[in-house]
Amino acid sequence: METFNPFLTTSLHVTEAGYTKVGPSWSHLATFFPYYRMYYITKGAAKMFMHDETLELTPDRLYFIPAFSITGAECPREMEHFWMHFNLDITTISYLTIYKPALFVEAQPLDKELFRLVRENFDAADDGAHAPNTLACQSLAKYLFSRFLPSGNVSSESANFIPVLEYIDRHLNSNISNTDLCNIMCLNETYFSNVFTKQFGISPKQYILQKRIGSAARMLVETDKTVKEIAFEFGYDNEMYFNRIFHKITGSAPGKYRKNFRAKDKL
């Protein structure tokens, strides 16, 4: 069966990076985080709860937390860690939907220094320094991210869905019908819905809904647009209905979600 590896063209953009000491105040209830994250723990320990899995955050490991995951954390004492938040290109996001990366890998001797350099170059670039700082930051982060990726290729059968997933990501603020999607794969609507649900565990409609709310969540964090403006941008004329759907998926009302994620205790 034909295979390929789209990770060869991955584009990664670091949005924040730092080094933080946290304690019991870092513990929080389940939250819907809008960015991908990587952690390198230097001291102490904590736990992160994601779906039905518990991650033990300890030194000598790197951790990857997917964007838009419902996560909770518990830090009974102190923990120190390097961290970064980042976005990925649409093709990579689509591929991660098909083939899940590892959530942790064993640290290598240079990893602490690499995280330090990501932070250093991010701070320099953020202060308006030359482009080499931005390039160094993104390149180092991309290498660290690559450590979590599957070593093999994906089958062409699974890869057939990538154009569909890319189409969804590019048209989240438009009406997307099953007809649009099944035409991409040249399948009838019933068969397309069945194979999509089998591949991803949810229907195309539910997948689109989750992606829309995820993008709306990121917009709440990154912009000062009103909830009504954001709702309208993603096709919701009724703000109350948007609020209800947003709360159902994220566990929080849009206004409260924005307030929580503009605090700095969720790193």
From TrEMBL:
Any Pfam family: AraC_binding
UniProt cross-references to PROSITE patterns, sorted A to Z: HTH_ARAC_FAMILY_2 (PS01124)
Keywords of the record: DNA-binding, Transcription, Transcription regulation
Keyword Transcription regulation on entry: yes
Superkingdom of the source species: Bacteria
An annotated Gene Ontology molecular function: sequence-specific DNA binding
InterPro entries: AraC-bd, Homeodomain-like_sf, HTH-like, HTH_AraC, Tscrpt_reg_AraC-type_HTH
SMART domains: HTH_ARAC
Keyword field contains DNA-binding: yes
Domain HTH araC/xylS-type: 162-260
PANTHER family: ARAC-FAMILY TRANSCRIPTIONAL REGULATOR, HTH-TYPE TRANSCRIPTIONAL REGULATOR EXSA
Name of the featured protein: AraC family transcriptional regulator
Organism per entry: Candidatus Borkfalkia ceftriaxoniphila
